[in-house]
Amino acid sequence: MARKNIILCGFMGSGKSTIGNLLSKKMGMSFVDMDKYIEKQENKTVTQIFEENGEEYFREKEREASRLLGSKRGLIIAAGGGTLTFPENVEAFRENGRIVLLNVSPETVAERLKSDNTRPLLEKPDKLLAIKELFEARMPLYKSAADIVVDADQSPMQVCMEIMSSIH
Ligand code: S3P
Fold first, then answer.
1. Which of 10, 9, 61, 3 is nearest to 36 (CA)?
2. How many Å apart are CA 49 and CA 115, to the nearest integer?
3. Closest residue to atom 2 of ligand 1, CA basis
4. 89 vs 67: CA distance, rounded Å
5. For the chain, percent of residues with pLDDT exceeding 70
6. Backbone dihedral region for residue 77 (phi beyond 0: left; psi -120 to 50: alpha; all else: beta)
7. Distance 122 CA to ligand 1 centre (A)
8. Can you point out the beta strands (E) in 53-159?
9. Which of 98, 137, 145, 164 is deepest in the core (most CB within 10 A)?
């Protein structure tokens, strides 16, 4: 039987896509980026979905993707930053996978995303404040969803090594 999925969880800018790509090559598993998966299905960017259909519609697509991807095996999955704040998505992924939290500081996120405009939830006049408020609300949820927590302020290679050594 194929290996259990590895689901990367964490805040926007925590490196889920970068780490997921690297880890999939190192471990010989397929990589799925949930935001890209939804964008492809909807033929729109996440920003367009939020603008044209609203956040609730996006969350519904995210739930559907969680159920579908969570029923498979052998995947490295980069969840969206909001995905694992919903208990039903955590349940869907837990069935066949292990959830890895990429733990970063709000300051690292702010630095990484300072010129990014693809995250509708952070398009606020005070981006650092928006990050800090969401962080506070989400961190307890991420921590309770996670099977493994890694320090993601390190380089992508170091993060991958840490994940691989805690998974084997
Ligand atoms: C979101 C994070 C984004 C994307 C959407 C909502 C969130 O994904 O799913 O903008 O609620 O944190 P990334 O974490 O990949 O940026």
1. 61
2. 21
3. 81
4. 7
5. 99
6. beta
7. 10
8. 75-78, 97-103, 148-151
9. 145
Report in angstroms the alpha-carbon separations of 51 from 60, 105, 129.
15, 28, 22
> Ligand 1 mean position to 135 CA, how many Å?
13
Cα–Cα distance between 58 and 42 in angstroms, integer?
10
- 126 Cβ contact partners less than 8 Å away, ≥ 6 residues apart: none
- Residue 32 clears pLDDT 80, i.e. is over it: yes
What's the pTM value of the predicted model, to 2 decimals?
0.96
Tokens linked to 128: 């650092």
Does the domain at 5-167 match CATH 3.40.50.300? Answer given as yes
Domain ranges of the chain: 5-167
* Angstrom distance (rounded) from CA 67 to CA 77: 13
Nearest to 29 by CA among 160, 162, 166: 160
